[in-house]
Amino acid sequence: MRQIFLDTETTGLYPDSGDRIIELGCVERVNRKLTGSHLHFYINPGRDSHEEALKVHGISNEFLRDKPSFESVADELLAYVAGAEVIIHNAPFDLGFLNRELGLLGRPAFRQCVSGVVDTLAMAKEMFPGKRNSLDALCDRLDVDNSARTLHGALLDAELLADVYINMTRGQEALLIDTETALQDSGQGVQFDLRTFELPVLMASAQEVEAHRALLRELDKASGGKTVWPSSP
């Protein structure tokens, strides 16, 4: 599965009031592994950032004067994310800005260009109800090193989000199979007729059964109760 972790920085909070994207960062994972591929733009928004926004991202208006417009990077962005599952922290915020920018160019909404969008803030609220679920808070809770993050930056935040997401979904790792690696390691062409073997049946001990049940309960909790097995096997 190809996943793109995306983050933006903006001139303010309200795209419908004229605020624009000034920075966009994307990081790619395939089959839950970083590929080293990323996309990063600083963008000239054609307007100044609000003072409060400047305090968050620290990207000066002067720095952005000679940067490309969103229109000039739109094709590259859409080609990069095409068909991927896109992971965003607080997705409605970034999607609001992306849809506004694309709408100004007469382009379809962002979701129409990708296979789907996952909001890690919504995931975190289900997993950690009543707790702070900002990206910084999740980094602290999930042991992701964010010491380099003094100001918000789109590419750095996308990289942190990629690590946070892996830790949030770590219970899935054992359920995933890297098909290509499995085939390479299996020695294709070597077959065994298991009918020629008498295989012993080894029953699980009481401790192993309880450990298995505890793991199922943990996976059920992490999924927000969405597993197909009972929550208390």
Describe the protein in words.
This protein is α/β, with parallel strands linked by helices and 233 residues long. The chain has two domains: 2-172, Ribonuclease H-like superfamily/Ribonuclease H (Nucleotidyltransferase, domain 5), CATH 3.30.420.10; 195-233. The protein has nine helices and five strands; from the N terminus they run βββαααβαβααααα. The protein has a five-stranded mixed β-sheet. The radius of gyration is 22 Å and the shape is elongated. It starts with a strand and ends in an 11-residue tail after the last helix. Mean pLDDT is 87; it is low at 173-184.
Q: Unreliable runs, pLDDT <50, ≥5 residues?
A: 173-184
Number of helices: 9
Would you tell me which CATH topology of the largest domain applies? Nucleotidyltransferase, domain 5
| Whole-angstrom Rg | 22 Å
Biggest sheet features: 5 strands, mixed
* CATH structural class of the largest domain: Alpha Beta
Q: What is the overall pLDDT average?
A: 87
Q: What proportion of the residues is helical, as a percent range?
A: 25-40%
Q: What is the helix/strand order? A: EEEHHHEHEHHHHH
Query: How many domains, as an integer?
Result: 2
- Strand-pairing-aware structural class: alpha/beta
Topology, number of strands: 5
CATH architecture of the largest domain: 2-Layer Sandwich
Shape: elongated
How far is the N terminus from the C terminus? 30 Å
Q: Kindly estimate the percentage of residues that lie in beta strands according to DSSP.
A: 15-25%
User: How is the largest sheet built, in terms of strand order?
Assistant: 3-2-1-4-5
CATH superfamily (homologous) name of the largest domain: Ribonuclease H-like superfamily/Ribonuclease H
